Every structure is written in C-alpha cells, then in structure tokens.
Amino acid sequence: MADTRSNENSLESLGLTRTQDDAAAAAGAFNTVAVVGGGTMGKGIAQTISRNGIEAILVEKDQQSLKRALDGLSDQLDAEIDRWGMTESEKRAVLKRVTGTTDLRDAGDAQIVIEAIDEHLQNKMTLFSKLDAICPDDTLLVTNTASLSVTEIGSATMRGDRVIGMHFINPVPKIPLVELVRGLHTSDTTFNKAKAFAEKQLGKTAVEVFEYPGGITTRIIVVLLNEAMYALMEGVAAAESIDTAIRLGYNFPVGPLALADQIGLDELIAWMEALFRELGDQKYRPCPLLRKLVRAGHLGVKTGRGFFIYNEQGKRMPGSNV
Question: Which helix (H) or strand (E) holds 55?
C-alpha cells in the first residue's frame, strides 16, 4: 500500500496497547477498516470511519476512480469547513487516516471490510468471493446493500456466519442511524461486534433488522418517493409544491423529490426494481418518470440534474428540471 502505518500507531490512535488488541477486537473495536467502493456511500463511510479516529483503506477499481473518490472526499470536507463544521487541521487529520488503493488485496489488512459498490447482486457476490479468499478467517465482511439479500451475498463465501449487512444512509456522516441486517447464518458474535462498532466507535444508533427485502428504511421510503413522482407525473402539482407540502405538512427536513435526488435516481430505481422483483407488489413498481430521468442520465445531485437542478457544489438552483 502507498501509505503503510505500523500496527502500534493504529492501536495508539484508539488509545490501546498491543496486549489490549485481542480484547478490543472481541468487543467490536476495530483499528483498521476497509471500504470497497468510493462512490457517494463509500466516501461517506470512509469519512465517518476516519473522523472517529480509525484507519480507513478506501479501495477502488482503477486509479481514475480512486482519484475521483479521494478528490470528492476532500471536497466533502471543504464543504464541512465552509459550514463551520470542521477545521482545516481536522480535515488534514481525517485525510491522513484514509489510505487509497486499487489493489483489493490491501483489504486483507483490515479487521472489517465494508462493501459499498453498486446495487448489483452478481457483482457483490463476486466481490465477496474474492474477499473471502483474501481476508483472514476472523475478518468480518459487511455489505451496505439497501435491498438485496445478505444471505445470498454471504453464500459466495465460506464464512456466512461472519457476513452481515450494515445499511448506512446518505449523507453517512450526518445520519445517526445504521440498520444491522442479519443474514440467515449471521452469528450473534458477528452481530454484537458490528453493533459495538456502529455504536461505540462510529457513534451511530444501530437498529437490528432480520433479513427481508428492503429492511425497514428502504421499503418504507421508496413508496413515499415513488408516490411523489406519480403525483408530479400526473400533474397534481409542480415539483416544488409537492416537496413544500410534504416538508411543511409533515415536518420533514427535506421534500421527497429532493431526497430522491440526494439518494441518486439510479440507486433508487435499483432499490425499487429489487423490491418489485422480490415481493411482486405494485407499490414498488418504479414510476415511468423516474425511468425517463435515469435513461436521460439525470441522476440527481451527483449529475447536476434530477427533479431539480444543482451546481457543481451540489447546491440546489432555482426552478425544477421536470
């Protein structure tokens, strides 16, 4: 790896000694975490890990993708500084704890590996099979999937008992929740380690979920977002009016269409299609307007256009895109 650090330094960053390492790991304390995938979720997870004093290995498929991920992480931290949520020295400390690599074998240096690639079952299973061969037997393998089966993903490994879902929600550094999704074979030990990691090291509130398509948050939110899209498509109201009505009427911090843009319309349609395929319920059938925007490449904040228009910093501009 380009930036090698000693185990002693990693332990010191957590206030641990070498003799405390095994006990800490048993309690769910990890000093090195690998994140595979440097997209919106991967960057957010890596930032959250690093900001909590933990070494993060960010793995991407090629140098161009890795540079884009690391530059994006730096930009995210600059935005925090602009909002007075972070200082320049804190930014430097966060970036110092993030090591970028394009070699998946570097994930073998971590005690827990979090997968944050696109919502595609076969790709995730292929990745987990590779990680199973690379990582030591006691490494926990985590998927951040929002809609796919943890059990099925774990079936690509020989360690189904050490595979668990940790569904973080964007923006990861700000949302205090993580869903811990048990697969059929996930052991209590794995669950307890993941829970301690989420709560004690990352400061999140962890909610236990037994495997079911979409867990809690995804299956509920996509119905709301989908219905808002249908209301827009059917001419019930303009995009801004729909968001204002839901935001003020139900005390939501953001309207459903703006939230869809934040999630990423390509991610959202992947969730809906997975739920529709698994459950066959019409309420999960993606709105045709959503399909139209995705086909046009208007994926939300990350492309500058979705239901609304955004500048290069992701700030929403006046008017709508639909």
Answer: strand 55-59
